[in-house]
Amino acid sequence: MAAIRTAVPTMRGVATGVPRCMPRMASRMSPVRSFQTSRIGAAIKTLYTVEHEWVRYDDESNIGTIGITNHAQDSLGDVVYIELPPVELEAARGDQIGSIESVKAASDIYSPVSGIIVESNVALDDQPNLVNKSPMDQGWLAKIKLSDASELDQLLSEEAYNATLE
């Protein structure tokens, strides 16, 4: 029996009967964590425009992360170039803040809210296809410090946005 116990992997000294590689494999296979689960107590919500942009707003920091929806990237096809907004750009809701070019078409990017751009996703300079691979996570476009959080009330919930696609 002692030989079996030493062969069984342990986690913090307690025999679990699960190979050591399983917890790591399970974490790699688990879904990507959303921003909504990243902090306890923070109110983070994702809202959408009918033009297929989204903003993930963190009410604790007053920062919104902007991107295009999966529907938009799917309609565009393979993205080959993205013009990102410059940091410190002051944008009003509905202003053009950049553009996306794909093998099929080019499209303007509009700000879903008013504010000042505080960060652009520079990873997209070298890997614009991140927008295709992960439009709601790694393919975000810019972060904006909102000047009027009440504008969020004019955006769509995920359910309302999906209804516009039907």
From TrEMBL:
Cofactor(s) listed: (R)-lipoate
Subcellular location: Mitochondrion
Annotated Lipoyl-binding domain residues: 63-145
Keywords: Lipoyl, Mitochondrion, Transit peptide
Cofactor binding: number and manner: Binds 1 lipoyl cofactor covalently.
One Gene Ontology cellular component annotation held by this UniProt entry: mitochondrion
UniProt record, GO biological process: glycine decarboxylation via glycine cleavage system; protein lipoylation
Positions carrying N6-lipoyllysine: K104
Domain of life: Eukaryota
A Pfam family the protein falls into: GCV_H
Known role: The H protein shuttles the methylamine group of glycine from the P protein to the T protein.
PANTHER family with a match to the protein in the record: GLYCINE CLEAVAGE SYSTEM H PROTEIN (PTHR11715), GLYCINE CLEAVAGE SYSTEM H PROTEIN-RELATED (PTHR11715:SF3)
Subunit structure: The glycine cleavage system is composed of four proteins: P, T, L and H.
Family to which this protein belongs: Belongs to the GcvH family.
HAMAP family, per database record: GcvH
Name this polypeptide is given: Glycine cleavage system H protein
Organism listed in the record: Malassezia yamatoensis
